[in-house]
């Protein structure tokens, strides 16, 4: 095996085994710092030894064993395990793990610990990407436009909060699991959204690294909780959006709206997988299982990706799904997106009236002004449309979106 093959093997092992190694060490030693450092040292050792020794038959087992030895060495050096019983646990870790929570899986425990509601959302995001995703601190800092030192402190504080608040390392009980899963999915959706449409002006407009990581982690949750409808719904939603990535930014760097995208460049494999998941959830709904927010959003995206041409879009079905979603989530953002479907069915004047009613709650949101600008343009109200475009451009951070809005504004008569 040549050097390139070994490097690819290490990269693959990092993607597949990082969370498993960190989770196993966290369960054994009860310390996220120890687990993180030992896992990182194990992968660094792999980079050094695998080119000479060869890639082991079971990379995950090799990495876990090596990380365990690294952790034990660290704890002994720091004199943190003087007690004879604890010393024995370091050398002889043969006790069967105690089942904790509704599902006994180390990785799931790690995810629920990192996404615990006692932590602030920004801390949950950072900690999940570091401990579960294996991203480095500089990578996470770049993703969310935060200084590396500040991101490092954020992760350190989050781990300290887990320790001082005695946040349990376990999967929630069966009674608490649905509510806690919702929090985990919210974290993964935020990661995906930042990649789907990056908010900062000094970063790539689309962050494939973040969307890919969010999808990978959601697949992991799906494998661990295969019967959870909202997990399946979120995965389907991500896949159907990610399928359109190649068509979303033009060669000149402008965002390309859904109506103008080259549908021939969409990823048919991702669309097929997303549609299959949506059909599974529709079958469950037919059997009396009410769909949740992510499932309905996935169904809306399934309608869009089913149309070979924008003119074939079943807008009445899209609107019916938004009506169902509004009953679950009466947020102004959902109402704004619903108005876009209304414009296709009832005309831009009806949609504009609905959008205007959202001003008090969305005045600081660029998409509100961009939607108004487009509706006003369609109604021939050029001066008002120009003012709305100006406001949208002022508030938009994404470079591709800003370029698109600027061009649309200059095209007004």
TrEMBL record:
InterPro entries: DUF6596 (IPR046531), RNA_pol_sigma70_r2 (IPR007627), RNA_pol_sigma70_r4_t2 (IPR013249), RNA_pol_sigma_r2 (IPR013325), RNA_pol_sigma_r3/r4-like (IPR013324), TPR-like_helical_dom_sf (IPR011990), WH-like_DNA-bd_sf (IPR036388)
UniProt similarity note: Belongs to the sigma-70 factor family. ECF subfamily.
Region (Disordered), start-end ranges: 77-98
Protein keywords: Sigma factor, Transcription, Transcription regulation
Pfam (any one): Sigma70_r4_2
Keyword Chaperone applies: no
Record field: compositional bias (Basic and acidic residues): 77-94
Protein name: RNA polymerase ECF-type sigma factor
Highest rank taxon of the organism: Bacteria
Domain RNA polymerase sigma-70 region: 20-80
Statement: the UniProt record of this protein carries the keyword Transcription: yes
